[in-house]
Amino acid sequence: MTATITINEIEQRADRAFAYALLARSAKSYVMCIYRLREVGRALDTLIGAIRPEHVERLAHDESDSGVRLRSRLTELHHLLVEFAGSEEAAKLNDFPLPIIPGLVQSIQDRTEDLGDIVENLALSRSDDLRNLVSCCAASLNLEAPEDLVGGMHDQTGS
Amino acid sequence: MAACTIKPEASPQFKKLCERWKRSGYRHIDKDLAAAFTAIQQDILACGAFRLQAGSRVEVYKYRQNSKDVKRGSSYGWRILALYHKPTGCMYPIIVYPKTVWSDVDEALVASAIIEIRQILGYCISPGCDGEMATSDPPERKEQGAAIQVKMQCVKCGAIQWATA
After folding, report:
1. Between 20 and 30 A from B36 (CA), which of B81, B105, B140, B143?
2. A47-62 mean pLDDT
């Protein structure tokens, strides 16, 4: 027995298939967005987890080609992340009604701040102006200025 | 975990900066700093400590502390620089500044922030000069918008700067 089907019903089915196709496309974008944000987050976690304070101390005074290159790359990466973290798109993703994405964006923003702290520590460690200022402050406390031995490795507790 | 004794009143520069930030609208600075000092007193590596300069007797540490006035995480709060005198175990806070606009930090921005701090503290900002600024003789004042500026002269290099009164 052949089922009879009207043009109207075919159109309804086409509409439904079209709607599912659109949904699939959105779902794909959503999954891709999660995947990419997660990859960025993971890469940042790995990077920041690997940079310990003693590495920052050593890197601040490393004038070798690789040291200069790494400092520049970290600053460049931070610029890039700040652009994303402060963008309108990030703000929209932060308010995204579906789960996971806002958490991933927040995590990238937090990591951006952590990286900013590293870049700031590098810049402060290398600043002659800060060194002079610290010497003035030490003198007014009748303390000798720090000998500035950073670059060699020291016990972090100072013991 | 190393403990220390904190002497927040010892440094005239630190007191001056605290007063300055309080006048600039950071009303909760005292409470914020007290919270940081309580933590640092128990462990000198608290508050995201980072050693900026090392030495056999004196070291410089940088700390992060939340600001109740900024109302964001410690990344946006106070930065405290302190001298640690190892023989006595005393920590002397010397510099404090709010981090609110350093979102995109680099060496140039850090340099200009340090110049601003030097200026607030009354040091000459001429490159390479570590002299202090004194009111010019005879004293001169001028209005700059709503603020009154005073003419200052470096006692060492003679450079002229206008500072907000």
Report:
1. B105
2. 92
